[in-house]
Amino acid sequence: MALAPGLVLVTGANGSGKTNLLESLHVGTQGFSPRTRSDTQLIRQGSTAARIELSGTRGPTPVSVAVGLSADEPRRARLDGAALRSAEQLRSELVTLVFTPDRLAIVKGGPAARRAYIDRTLARLYPARAHIPIDYATAVGQRNAALRRVSLGLSHRDVLAPWTAQVADLGAMLTASRRDVIELLQPGFGERADELGLEDALLGYAAEPPTIAALEKRLDRDIERGITGIGPHLDEIAVRSSERDLRTFGSQGEQRLAVLSLLLAEAELIALRRRVPPLLLLDDAFSELDENRRRILSERIGAVGQTIVTATGTEALPLAPAQLLRVTPGRVEIS
Q1: S-S: 149 plus which of 63, 134, 155, 207, CB 3.0-4.6 Å?
Q2: Residue 305 φ/ψ region, left for φ over 0, alpha for ψ in the -120 to 50 degree band, beta for the rest
């Protein structure tokens, strides 16, 4: 059996703690859980605190991380012994990409799930632009609040002008940034999807940025409804294969392949642009894939960097992992 040098396989029965192990690695490298924002759900039942300590390398440089969780205090994190302002600051220093079965929502869910994915990718590929989606959402929220005050007769229409200008300006920046991200992702996404048998895979984004003129044209309607009715907060990002929209016309297997292809494309871009590959965490990624696709996926993830994959048994992985971990409740054994 061929060896996948960067791959760690975690096996164990359902409910043994495999997903918990991956979740702890995500919290320890990103400062937050991909599953919940409630720290009490991350702490062992009956305890009031938890701690995650990790050590490894970032490229050639040793790195150590410690994250402390408490039921009644904010999360605390240290990177190489230095305290961080917040635990989530870790994600600007370390990059971890995760696949879990609920990540299929990127394809099968509503437009908000795809917008959120592209905006998270924007922050990872263009750290200097990470503020744009946040600033845009703030401007839309402020404009919506002003629209409601005008609707109730509590403010004059003139108060809307500054927020309209901000929505137009930041909306144009966000639309352009999303296009840049999709343009970067598309070649790798198409190639990885094609390898996995998903033909002619494309990301579609045909949105136009909001302008002051367009926002003012629909001002009466926006005041009546109390919301900003155009802009990138409403944009659709389509995921297609052979001109089929996979949200509507894709099988769950095809949707899984599309999400995995996006993950691989992003991982390769991050490795190229940052010169350090991300940590990949794949929870139950191989289920519903045939042996050929499992082999192709294994070869790809084994070449990207360090990847940790969970499965109920070793037979799920066609290649020999660099390391095998066997999980039983409360225990991890290294093989």
Answers
A1: 155
A2: left
Is residue 328 within 8 A of residue 16, CB to CB? The reply is yes
Shortest CA distance to 306 belongs to which of 2, 99, 95, 7? 7
- Looking at the domain assignment, is residue 87 inside a domain? yes
Reported as a single tens digit per residue, the pLDDT across 261-282 is 999 999 999 999 988 899 999 9
126 found inside a domain = yes
Query: How long a stretch of residues is the chain?
Result: 335
Its domain, for residue 40, covers: 1-95+276-335
Per 3-state DSSP, the chain is made up of helix, strand and coil in percentages (nearest 5) of 50, 20, 30
Burial 122-147 (b: 16+ CB within 10 A, else e): bbbbeeebbebbeebeebbeebbebb
Q: How many domains does the chain have?
A: 2
| Contact (Cβ atoms closer than 8 angstroms) between residue 323 and residue 309 | no
Is 60 exceeded by the pLDDT of residue 3? no
